[in-house]
Design a protein that fits this description.
single chain; alpha+beta; 3 domains; five-stranded antiparallel β-sheet; two-stranded antiparallel ribbon; 8 helices; IS402-like_dom; Transposase; Transposase_6_like
Amino acid sequence: MPDSQQIPDGSSTALPRVLHTPRSTALLSESWAQAEDAKRRERAGNDRQLTHEAYAAGEPCRACGRALLGEPVLDTDEAGLARIDADNAEFRAEHAACNMGVWRLENNRVEHCHLCCPFPPLSPAQRDELRQLLYPPSLHIDRSATWRVELTCQHVETLAGHSPRYVESTVQCTECAVIRGVVKAVRIDDQAKDGDDGSFAEGLQPDHQRLTDEQWSWIKHIVHTEEEPRRGRPRTDVRTIVDAALYKTRTGITWRELPTEFGSWQTALRRHRQLVESSQWDEITRTLAERDLPE
């Protein structure tokens, strides 16, 4: 799901239980996932990647038909080396348009194309070693949460054994038999049932203090305000926007979780982005930090 659905670290009672994604975003993720799935299916019928068993048995490259496990260089006589070099020169000429160069394995003189020829597969031992490097025990991934997700097709799926912090942006719909985008996710496991029955907390955290008049006087000159009257609904004042952004930063919540006391979260997000793009936000936080205020 998009960043707006990321859940800050904390206890289970602090986890938002309802995650939303704009339908347009869900449809875009859906189209990308369906296109990638179509490519994957197409490649599955013409898979050029060897299994490790086939590679170890001496099967040649499925793309070019050239040996992957040939005779070691040290065991090849001069005539053999010359023959391999001539064959390599012919191979490079045939793949000159690839513009990716060639590769070859250690102790093997036979060359392969970087663009056309997939690398040999990892052995089971190599895969285990790589897995330990990427996912050490200290980075254990908690997959204890259960979610009920609503898809763009309006069908509902239940996902068990998922992360308690986020839901993937697309899911295979069992009724449509195609990949669909997720527009809403509700966490339904026991940990998520503590509290307010799945709704976001509306009130401010008890230890939060809004900017005082003195604190606002330190930074209000940084923000450019509108001088001319404007039509439509009254504009949210900049001080409230700054307060909202500071509250979000200090608590680690998402914009969607912003308490209604700060007004529309969409407005706060949009105007905060404007402050960031104009570098005003950096100046605001720097000024507050210099006054020994927490950011």
